[in-house]
User: Fold this.
Amino acid sequence: MPKINECLIDVDLANAIREVADALKLKIPAGKLGFRCPNPKCRKPVKPMVAGGKQGPHFEHLKRNPKCDLSHVRRS
Ligand SMILES: [Zn+2]
Assistant:
């Protein structure tokens, strides 16, 4: 029987985990909590962001991946 080793997580729960990790001063290797982009062609590390300005809570790639459809596009 196949095992599920990963699942999708809501950004609000991810932000709560990040907050707890910060409050407990947990040592997270390279600051990566293990969240990864859900795009099967990407799967790069992402971090949860709280709401700010006009944006609601969301995930951002730790390092922008121009090949990912979900990567933030910078407008100049
Ligand atoms: Zn991605």
Residues 37, 39, 42, 44, 61, 65, 68, 70-71 surround zinc ion (CB under 6 Å). The two ends are 50 Å apart (CA to CA). Residues 1-76 form one domain.
